[in-house]
C-alpha cells in the first residue's frame, strides 16, 4: 500500500504516457518532458503563492500583528488578489531604457530559477531532469542569474537600478564560491555529481536510529550551515538584502519594473529560494529519505517537502529576526570567514573518509573543523567587530 | 538523418570567422577580446566534434583538451580585461588604433 | 542526434555570433556573445560532451561575460567614441570563411557519420584528470593562480 502511495505520481505519468504507445520515440520523449515541466511548474507556482501569504502571516506573528486576513478564509486568497493586482497594473518602461534588455531580464531570471529546480530529486524516481552532472548543471544555470540581474540594472538606465545590480552581482559572485566549495565534500564522499546518487548514498540508519545524512557528520554539519548562509545571500534574502535595500536604493535592480515584470522578478526570487533549499535538503538532509526507520511508510515526496518547508520557515524566521547587514560586512564575512571554513570542510571530509567513516573519522574531522574555527576567530579578532563604529566619509 | 562531421566543422568555421571579424575589424579593445573568445570557442567545438567522430571516441582526450582550453581562455580573459582597464586608466581610451605610443 | 537539431541550434548561435561581431552597442554585443556561447554549449550537449558544455556555460556566462560587462562599465566614458570598422579585417575574415568552407566541403574524408558510443561520464573525466592528466591539471591550476595575481596587480590603484 505504502509503495503504491510512494510511486503514485510516477505511475500516473506512465499511465498518461501509455496513451502514446505506437507514437514515435521523439514524440514520447517530448510528451514526457512536457509532463515533467507541467508538474514542476504547477507544484512550485502553488508553493510560491502559498509561501508568499504564509511568509506575511509568519512575519506578522513575529512582529505581533495579524498579517493579511481580509481576502478569503484566514487571508489565504491573498496571492490571488495580489496576482490580479499585478496583472492589471500599467507596465511602465522608462523612455531612455534599453527596451529589449529591459524586457528580457525578468524572463531570463525566471527561466534560470525554473531550470535549476529540474535536477532536484523530489521523491523516489521523481527527478524531472536526470543528467550526469546535475550539481554542475544547477550552478551553471544559477550563474546566468548574475548576467540577468545585470541586464535588469543596466537596461533600466537608472542609477538606483545600476547600483542595486552592482551590489547584487558583487555579493552573488562572492558567495557563489563558498556555495560551490561546500558542495565539494559531498561530491567527494559520494563520488558523483548526480543528485540521485547523492541521495542514495544517504540511505540507511546508524544503529537503526540516526539516519546517515551528511548533516550528522562534523564536516557535513559545517558545510550545511555555510551552504545555508550562502544560499540566503544568493537569494538576496533579508539579512543580506542590500541589493534591494528599500531604505537606500528604492528596490535595487527592480526599481524600474512594474506590473507583471515585477511579479516575474518576485516569482524568480522565490523559485530560486526553493531551488537552493531543495538542493540543501538533497545534499545534506538526505533528500527524500525519512528521518526514522519506523516512518518509512510515509511517501518519499512528503519527506522532501517537509524538509523544504522547514528550511523555508527558517528563511522567514531569519527575515523577521535579523536586521540588514552592511555591504562591507557581507564581503568581509564571505572572504575572511566563510571561504576558509568551507575549505576546511573539504579537508575534514577527506579525513573522515580516510579514517574509515567511523567514530574515529568523526572525531578527527571534528578536530579539523574546530581547529580552523578557533584559528580563524583568533586571526580575525572577532571582538573588534563590536567596537564603536568609525565613520569614514567619501573624500 | 544523422549529421556528418562536415556540418559541425562548418558551424565551427562560421563561428571562427565571426570571431575573426570582431577581432580584426573592430577598434574597441573589448570587441577584440570577445572575438578571441569566440575563436577559442570555435576551436573547442572542433576538438569535441573530432573527438566524437573519431573511431576511438571512448578515449577522454578530446573532452579533456576542451576543458583545459576553456580554463586557459578564462585566464586569458581575466588578464586581457585587466590590461584593458590598465590601458584605459593610462590613456583614457580603449581604441586600439590610438594606442600608438610606447612611452608612458 | 539529428541534423535538424544541429541546424536549429546552429542558426541562432551563428546569428548571435555575427551580432556580437557587428553590433554598434558594446553591451548588446556582449549579451549576444553570451547567447552564442550558450548555443555552443548546446552543440556540445548534442555531441555527447555534457560536462564540457556545462563547464562552458559556467565559465563563460558566469565569469567571462560578467567580467566583460564590468570592464565596459569601468571604461564607460569611452563607449561610443570609437565608431567605425577596419574593412581590411572584415575582408580577411570573409576570405578565411570562404577558404575554410571550400576546404571542408572538398575534403571527402570528413564526411563521416558518428559511431555509436556510450555517453562519457563525469566519473571517467575525473579519473583521467587525477591520473594520466594530473600534470596538465596542476599546470592549469598554476596558470590560473598566476593569471589571478597578474590581473590583480595590473588593475591595482597606483599609490601616489
Q: Would you kindly provide a written description of the structure presented here, covering whatever features stand out?
A:
The complex is a heterotrimer of chains A (about 400), B (about 100) and C (about 160). By secondary structure, chain A is mainly alpha-helical. Chain A is about 65% helix and about 0% strand. Chain A has helices at about 1-5, 10-15, 25-60, 80-90, 100-115, 135-155, 160-190, 195-200, 220-235, 245-250, 260-285, 300-320, 325-355, 360-380; strands spanning about 205, 210. A two-stranded antiparallel ribbon of chain A has the order 1-2. Chain B is an all-alpha fold and about 100 residues long. In chain B, about 75% of the residues lie in helices and about 0% in strands. Chain B is built from 3 helices and no strands. Chain B is elongated, with a radius of gyration of 17 Å. Chain C has about 160 residues and is an all-alpha fold. Chain C has 6 helices and no strands. The N and C termini of chain C lie far apart (about 60 Å). The model of chain C has no long low-confidence stretch (mean pLDDT about 80). The interface of A and C includes residues 100, 151, 166, 173 and 192 of A.
Task: State which percent range the strand residues of chain B make up.
Answer: under 5%
Number of helices of chain A: 14
Average residue pLDDT of chain A: 83
What are the secondary-structure elements of chain A, in order, as H or E? HHHHHHHHEEHHHHHH
Which structural class should the secondary elements of chain B be placed in? Answer: mainly alpha
Sheet having the most strands of chain A: 2 strands, antiparallel
First-last Cα distance of chain A: 72 Å
Provide the spatial order of strands within the biggest beta sheet of chain A: 1-2
Number of strands of chain B: 0
Gross morphology of chain A is globular
| Relative helix content of chain B | over 70%
The quaternary state of the protein chains shown equals heterotrimer
Task: Report strand % of chain A.
Answer: under 5%
What class do helices, strands and sheet pairing of chain A give?
A: mainly alpha
Compute the separation of the termini of chain B in Å: 60 Å
Rg of chain B is 17 Å
- Poorly predicted ranges of chain B: none
Sheet with the most strands, sense and barrel status of chain B: none
Pattern of helices and strands of chain B: HHH
Q: Are there runs of chain A of 5+ residues with pLDDT below 50, and where?
A: none
Amino acid at each position: 500500500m505504502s509503495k503504491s502511495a510512494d510511486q503514485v505520481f510516477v505511475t500516473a505519468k506512465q499511465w498518461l504516457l501509455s496513451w502514446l504507445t505506437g507514437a514515435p520515440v521523439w514524440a514520447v520523449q517530448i510528451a514526457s518532458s512536457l509532463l515533467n515541466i507541467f508538474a514542476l511548474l504547477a507544484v512550485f507556482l502553488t508553493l510560491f503563492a502559498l509561501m508568499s501569504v504564509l511568509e506575511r502571516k509568519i512575519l506578522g506573528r513575529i512582529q505581533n500583528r495579524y498579517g493579511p486576513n481580509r481576502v478569503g478564509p484566514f487571508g489565504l486568497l491573498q496571492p490571488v488578489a495580489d496576482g490580479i493586482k499585478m496583472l492589471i497594473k500599467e507596465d511602465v518602461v522608462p523612455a531612455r531604457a534599453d527596451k529589449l534588455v529591459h524586457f528580457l531580464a525578468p524572463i531570463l531570471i525566471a527561466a534560470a530559477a525554473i531550470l535549476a529546480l529540474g535536477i532536484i530529486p523530489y521523491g523516489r524516481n521523481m527527478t524531472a531532469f536526470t543528467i550526469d552532472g546535475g550539481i554542475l548543471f544547477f550552478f551553471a544555470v544559477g550563474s546566468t542569474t548574475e548576467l540577468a540581474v545585470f541586464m535588469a540594472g543596466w537596461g533600466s538606465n537608472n542609477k538606483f537600478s545600476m547600483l542595486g545590480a552592482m551590489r547584487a552581482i558583487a555579493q552573488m559572485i562572492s558567495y557563489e564560491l563558498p556555495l560551490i566549495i561546500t558542495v565539494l565534500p559531498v561530491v567527494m564522499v559520494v563520488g558523483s555529481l548526480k543528485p540521485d546518487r547523492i541521495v542514495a548514498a544517504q540511505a540507511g540508519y546508524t544503529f537503526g536510529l540516526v539516519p546517515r545524512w551528511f548533516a550528522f557528520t562534523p564536516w557535513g554539519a559545517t558545510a550545511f550551515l555555510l551552504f545555508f548562509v550562502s544560499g540566503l545571500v544568493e537569494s538576496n534574502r533579508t539579512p543580506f538584502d542590500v541589493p534591494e535595500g528599500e531604505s537606500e536604493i528604492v528596490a535595487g535592480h527592480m526599481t524600474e519594473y512594474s506590473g507583471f515584470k515585477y511579479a516575474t522578478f518576485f516569482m524568480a526570487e522565490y523559485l530560486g529560494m526553493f531551488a537552493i533549499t531543495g538542493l540543501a535538503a538533497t545534499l545534506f538532509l538526505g533528500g527524500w529519505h525519512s528521518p526514522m526507520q519506523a516512518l518509512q511508510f510515509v511517501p518519499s515526496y512528503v519527506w522532501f517537502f517537509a524538509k523544504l518547508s522547514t528550511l523555508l520557515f527558517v528563511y522567514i524566521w531569519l527575515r523577521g529576526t535579523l536586521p540588514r547587514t552592511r555591504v562591507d560586512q557581507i564581503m568581509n564575512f564571505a572572504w575572511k570567514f566563510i571561504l576558509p571554513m568551507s575549505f576546511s570542510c573539504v579537508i575534514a571530509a577527506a579525513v573522515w573518509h580516510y579514517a574509515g567513516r567511523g567514530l574515529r573519522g568523526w572525531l578527527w574531522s571534528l578536530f579539523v573543523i574546530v581547529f580552523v574555527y578557533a584559528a580563524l576567530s583568533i586571526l580575525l579578532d572577532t571582538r573588534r567587530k563590536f567596537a564603536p563604529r568609525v565613520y569614514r566619509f567619501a573624500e | 538523418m544523422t549529421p556528418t562531421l562536415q556540418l559541425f566543422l562548418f558551424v565551427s568555421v562560421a563561428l571562427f570567422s565571426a570571431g575573426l571579424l570582431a577581432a580584426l575589424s573592430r577598434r574597441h579593445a573589448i570587441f577584440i577580446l570577445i572575438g578571441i573568445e569566440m575563436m577559442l570557442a570555435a576551436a573547442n567545438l572542433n576538438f569535441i566534434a573530432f573527438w566524437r567522430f573519431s573511431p576511438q571516441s571512448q578515449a577522454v582526450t578530446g573532452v579533456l583538451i576542451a576543458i583545459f582550453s576553456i580554463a586557459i581562455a578564462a585566464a586569458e580573459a581575466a588578464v586581457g580585461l585587466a590590461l584593458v582597464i590598465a590601458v584605459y586608466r593610462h590613456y583614457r581610451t580603449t581604441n586600439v588604433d590610438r594606442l600608438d605610443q610606447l612611452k608612458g | 542526434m539529428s541534423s535538424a537539431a544541429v541546424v536549429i541550434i546552429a542558426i541562432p548561435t551563428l546569428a548571435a555570433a555575427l551580432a556580437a561581431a557587428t553590433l554598434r552597442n558594446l553591451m548588446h554585443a556582449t549579451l549576444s556573445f553570451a547567447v552564442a556561447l550558450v548555443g555552443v554549449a548546446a552543440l556540445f550537449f548534442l555531441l555527447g560532451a555534457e560536462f564540457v558544455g556545462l563547464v562552458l556555460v559556467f565559465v563563460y556566462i558566469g565569469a567571462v561575460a560578467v567580467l566583460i560587462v564590468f570592464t565596459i562599465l569601468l571604461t564607460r566614458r569611452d563607449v561610443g567614441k570609437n565608431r567605425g570598422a577596419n574593412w581590411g579585417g572584415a575582408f580577411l575574415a570573409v576570405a578565411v570563411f570562404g577558404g575554410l568552407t571550400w576546404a571542408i566541403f572538398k575534403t571527402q574524408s570528413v564526411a563521416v557519420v558518428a559511431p555509436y558510443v556510450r555517453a562519457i561520464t563525469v566519473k571517467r573525466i575525473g579519473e583521467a584528470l587525477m591520473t594520466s592528466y594530473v600534470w596538465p591539471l596542476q599546470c592549469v591550476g598554476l596558470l590560473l593562480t598566476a593569471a589571478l595575481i597578474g590581473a590583480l596587480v595590473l588593475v591595482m590603484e597606483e599609490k601616489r
